[in-house]
Fold:
Amino acid sequence: MIDKQEFYHGAAIIRLLEDERCQKLQKHSLGYTVNDETFIFLKYTTKSRSPWRFSFSRGEIEGLNAIANSFGRIILVLICGGDGICTISWQEASELLGNDAGWISAKRNFNEQYGVAGSQGKLKGKISLLEWPSIVFRNQS
Structure:
């Protein structure tokens, strides 16, 4: 039987692996490193309709802050059920969370982009469905 986490994470990871710019994917305790340059942290929800809400524990935030000291570039990969994948930077997520335990939600109407908000604010602008996995390779050497 396929575990739910394997199922949803696999949906995101297969898109990454099929991108020719992905040369190396390595498992890390909290996520994965891509091409030894970018760290990705995956969260999923099985909810089928918008809005999708993702909770972040204090431990996850502390872990991601520690990783940020090593990698600098962290991408949050929010897997919104069967709808799609919403991605934001760790810097954006930290602002939405206020660097404390909390939540981030992604909301999308039919044929629109994701609006993202958190327990401490709202992200300016919208996130395209086409951001994943392109965002991972921006500014890589």
